Structure formats: C-alpha cells, structure tokens
Task: structure prediction
Amino acid sequence: MKPLHIAGSQISNSTMASARLFFTSLIACSIFLTTFSSDAAENGRFGVSRIEAQKVTLSVYYETLCQFCATFIVKNLAQIFDNNLITILNLRLVPWGKASTNSSKNSTVCQNKYFALIYCIEFLAIEGRQKEWQTCFSSLGLPSKPILDCYKSGNGTKIEQKYANETMHLNPPLKFLPWLVLNNQPIGNDYENFAAYVCKAYKGNKVPLACQSVHLKQKTE
Result:
C-alpha cells in the first residue's frame, strides 16, 4: 500500500491502527484548541447559568475511521446542528476505542468548528479517502498549523491517554462502538434513536421543535 503523507512526513498505511492513532490525536488537538479558550472565557465571566445546568450531557465514545462510527456521526449525530437539538445539549466527543463543551453562544461556534472537522474526516473515511484529510482544513477555512503543532508536540498523545483512561473506566463498560452515554447512563444498542432519549431527559422550558417529532420505542418483553 502507498504510505499516508502527513504534514511533510510519512505514516505507514500498512495497518489501520497507525492511521487511527494519528487521526485520534489530530481530532483530540482540534477539540482541545477550539474549545479551551471559549470555555475558559465563558466560565470565568458568567459561571454556570440555570439554562446550562438544565442541558443534557451526551458523551459519544467512538473510534476514528471506524465505519460504524463514521456513519453514525455523518448521518445521525450531525442532525443536532440542523434541528437545534444542540441548544439543549452538552455534547462530548471522546475519540478513543470532544474536551467538554457547553453550548453558550461562543462555545456553540467552537462546537460547530470542531464537529465540522470531525464530520469531514469521517465522511472521507466512509468513502475510503482519509488520505485527503488536509482538504478538510481548506474547505472549512480552518488553520491547520495550530492543530499540527499540537500533534507534533506530543500534546495530542497526552489528550489521547486521557480519553483512553476515561473509556477504560466506564461503568458499565462499553460493549460496542459508537457507545453513547446520556447523563451518565448508556443508551445501548438503540443509539441511533438518541434524539428521543435526549428529549425525554431534558427538563428545561425551551424545548426544540425536533422533540415533538421523536418518540422512544416501546420495549417489548
């Protein structure tokens, strides 16, 4: 197989594992760099508001370049930005197997930025074109240098280790990928219907229109 060209160097593409580690580190850096400054600013100025406290926390544990995970992110999870479900969510993406964010005005912009990058990379993975990952930065108008510098410095690896530790200590442990946890409770194999669980768990007053059209399936014995 041809080698995968990454930022002037070559990473062997003979095993998918090496590519996954690279993209996990790359995505970890992008999540950290695009959310850290806005979260620090928002929390420092305003603290945690009542609206923020009412939001539902959705943690998505996934593996980069995993076809099941990529399909879920592209076809299912991306819809939360179209139907405004993101307004009642604290979305956490844990690429091992987000960096936690809130959805205030400033950090929602950051969420869109890093999610768009993840979406782009996973979309390429579905089509088997992950070697074109650098086009994601240019198409989204995002600078690649800060993220690549983070990767080269080894900070991406440190963030990966944090994700790995969190994933390994999940209780109950994850059984498959993607693994969705809603307010510390796993959704299980009904993860594609996550929107219904989010709407049911939300106790705030500003209910998105999307919640009017989703329903939890009745479990049968």
Remarks:
- DSSP finds eight helices and six strands in the chain.
